[in-house]
């Protein structure tokens, strides 16, 4: 039976091979379609059918599929030439970053040491497969890019566990991702942006091999797919939009333009025992108020004629941008009809001494200057009495500590009705950013005029340009929300010739402030009326007290 079984097996194998060859011949050779033509090894791109193209290039670059994405071969060439140096620099960062992480595990779980035995990213650099830049009205640069890297890194980590040395090697690393990067805010300090904000626009594709003690763990059935999906999901959970990775480049205080966060209420009450600077009569004092670091003109009280103990009882409101650093500067002068006004004294009050929402009465001893070694400070110059209070805007009030706890203040702010917010006093911030295609008939030296409730504010003129940039901010303190009002902005041109000044209207726009009040802010470009192609770019904000 044993011999017979072996003989039958040999015969069956021979018959099976013969039948397989015959069936294969008829399936793949005899019945092969005759109308199919093989493509030559090199065919013009536009002659390949779409289906065949997808088969040949399963992962087309973005610049092929989306015309608004640009090829960046120059950048890829740059990276290719720089890659040997970038490899060493990046590996140095990886080592310095990993050392404290490795140190946390040494001594635990019988681990004696963890170190890189080999660390290189290989000779193949990553490549950008397309980039797209977005237009933005904000002070930022937004662009999307697709990056792919099928590298040949050699990363070996040596783990010494008791007396056993275990080597783990990362090989054949591949990644494909599409990301959006935002450089913001743009500032006039090199490299001209403060932060890089990066987020993924779709889940990344990650693949790699991991060898431990000479064997590839990723070859274990099911483990490769599980690890690949887990890493992709974890990275997506952390950085897939709207999640972001913020990379600070400059200190937040460098080049940053601080926005108003509240209003300083100052009531100048009176002064006493002031210096007498006049021979035939008494001084004629008045007070100038300003905030340190503020470029706005100083505010003034009325002049009290012939008095060394003047009483004013006058209220002022000043816009605060940094209550921790700014100071209120107070200067008293003796008004003169002719010539310079004599200085009576001065004093400063740091705003950090104030508690939000709390009114504080102060009596200040006047000095000649803030220099402690100034001999003129020994001379008594009188006192100035005033009341002060700092009121943050509603949206900024939770940033400041005060008599209420954070939780209590947050609840009190959220409990305010929309009706109160809409009817309450506030600050309207109007930033005239730029204009485009403003052309004059006789001359083009454009400047902008902002008109609200009879108040006029004017930017500087930009000479001989159709596309002026101003970036100038104007503040309007309003007792009530301007729900039914318009703000009128004109773009004009002026020129002086032979002692005569000529002006020309290049266009204007009327903006409904209702949208600003309800939304808190608008940042838009408006087509100028009475202008062929003129556009005005403005940013308007409403801050409720």
Description:
It is a single chain. The protein has 545 residues and is an alpha+beta fold. Strands 1, 2, 3, 4, 5, 6, 7, 8 and 9 form a nine-stranded antiparallel beta sheet that branches. A four-stranded antiparallel beta sheet has the order 13-10-17-16, with no helix packed on it. It is built from eight helices and 25 strands. Mean pLDDT is 80; it is low at 27-32, 35-40 and 402-418. The protein has helices spanning 2-30, 50-56, 62-65, 73-105, 223-239, 406-414, 418-423, 514-519; strands at residues 111-120, 127-134, 141-150, 154-161, 164-186, 193-200, 205-212, 215-216, 245-248, 262-272, 285-291, 299-300, 311-320, 327-334, 342-350, 360-365, 383-392, 426-436, 446-452, 455-458, 469-478, 486-497, 500-512, 521-527, 535-544.
Distance between the termini: 104 Å
Secondary-structure-based class equals: alpha+beta
Q: Give the helix level as a range of percent.
A: 10-25%
- Strand coverage percent: 35-45%
**Which quaternary structure do these chains form?**
single chain
* Total strand segments: 25
Membrane topology: Single-pass membrane protein
Family: Belongs to the synaptotagmin family.
Transmembrane segments: 7-31
Domain C2: 241-364, 408-526
List the helices and strands and how they pair.
Blueprint: H1 2-30, H2 50-56, H3 62-65, H4 73-105, E1 111-120, E2 127-134, E3 141-150, E4 154-161, E5 164-186, E6 193-200, E7 205-212, E8 215-216, H5 223-239, E9 245-248, E10 262-272, E11 285-291, E12 299-300, E13 311-320, E14 327-334, E15 342-350, E16 360-365, E17 383-392, H6 406-414, H7 418-423, E18 426-436, E19 446-452, E20 455-458, E21 469-478, E22 486-497, E23 500-512, H8 514-519, E24 521-527, E25 535-544
Antiparallel strand pairs: 1-4, 2-3, 3-5, 4-5, 5-6, 5-7, 6-9, 7-8, 10-13, 10-17, 11-12, 11-14, 14-15, 16-17, 18-21, 18-25, 19-20, 19-22, 22-23, 24-25
Membrane topology: Single-pass membrane protein
Main location: membrane
InterPro entries: C2_dom, C2_domain_sf, SMP_LBD, Synaptotagmin_plant, Synaptotagmin_SMP
């Amino acid at each position: 039976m044993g011999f017979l079984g072996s003989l039958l097996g040999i015969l069956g194998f021979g018959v099976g091979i013969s039948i397989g060859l015959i069936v294969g011949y008829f399936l793949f050779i005899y019945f092969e379609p005759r109308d199919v033509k093989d493509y030559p090894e090199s065919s013009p791109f536009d002659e390949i059918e779409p289906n065949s193209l997808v088969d040949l290039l399963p992962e087309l670059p973005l610049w092929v599929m989306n015309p608004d994405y640009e090829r960046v071969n120059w950048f890829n060439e740059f990276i290719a030439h720089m890659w040997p140096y970038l490899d060493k620099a990046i590996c140095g960062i990886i080592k310095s970053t990993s050392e404290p992480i490795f140190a946390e595990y040494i001594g635990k779980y019988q681990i004696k040491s963890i170190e890189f035995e080999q660390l290189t990213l290989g000779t193949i650099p990553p490549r950008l497969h397309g980039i797209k830049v977005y237009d933005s009205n904000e002070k930022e640069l937004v662009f999307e890019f697709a990056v792919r890297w099928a590298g040949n890194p050699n990363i070996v980590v040596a783990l010494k566990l008791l007396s056993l040395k275990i080597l783990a090697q990362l090989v054949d690393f591949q990644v494909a991702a599409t990301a959006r990067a935002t450089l913001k805010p743009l500032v006039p300090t090199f490299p001209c942006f403060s932060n890089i904000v990066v987020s993924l626009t779709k889940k990344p594709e990650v693949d790699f091999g991991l060898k431990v003690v000479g064997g590839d763990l990723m070859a274990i059935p099911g483990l490769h797919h599980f690890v690949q999906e887990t890493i992709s999901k974890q990275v997506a959970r952390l950085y897939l939009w709207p999640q972001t990775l913020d990379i600070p480049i400059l200190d937040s205080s460098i080049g940053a333009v601080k926005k108003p966060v509240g209003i300083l209420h100052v009531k100048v009450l009176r002064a006493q025992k002031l210096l007498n600077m006049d021979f035939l009569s008494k001084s004629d004092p008045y007070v100038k108020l300003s905030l340190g670091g503020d470029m706005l003109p100083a505010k003034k009280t009325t002049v009290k004629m012939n008095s060394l103990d003047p009483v004013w009882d006058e209220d002022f409101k000043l816009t605060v941008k940094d209550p921790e650093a700014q100071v209120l500067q107070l200067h008293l002068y003796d008004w003169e009809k002719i010539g310079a006004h004599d200085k009576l004294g001065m004093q400063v009050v740091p705003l950090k001494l104030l508690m939000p929402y709390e009114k504080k009465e102060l009596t200040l001893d006047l000095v000649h200057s803030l220099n402690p070694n100034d001999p003129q400070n020994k001379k008594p110059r009188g006192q100035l009495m005033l009341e002060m209070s700092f009121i943050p805007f509603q949206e900024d009030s939770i940033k400041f500590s005060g008599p209420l706890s954070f939780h209590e203040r947050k609840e009190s702010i959220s409990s305010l009705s929309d009706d109160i917010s809409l009817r309450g006093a506030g600050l309207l911030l109007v930033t005239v950013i730029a204009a485009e295609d403003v052309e004059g008939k006789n001359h083009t030296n454009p400047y902008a005029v902002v008109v609200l409730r009879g108040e006029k504010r004017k930017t500087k003129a930009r000479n001989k340009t159709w596309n002026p940039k101003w970036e100038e901010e104007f503040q309007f303190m309003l007792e009530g929300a301007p729900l039914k009002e318009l703000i009128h902005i004109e773009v004009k041109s002026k020129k002086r010739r032979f002692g005569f000044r000529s002006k020309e209207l290049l266009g204007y726009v009327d903006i409904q402030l209702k949208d600003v009040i309800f939304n808190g802010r608008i940042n838009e470009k408006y087509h100028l009326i009475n202008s062929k192609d003129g556009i005005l770019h403005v940013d308007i904000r409403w801050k409720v007290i």
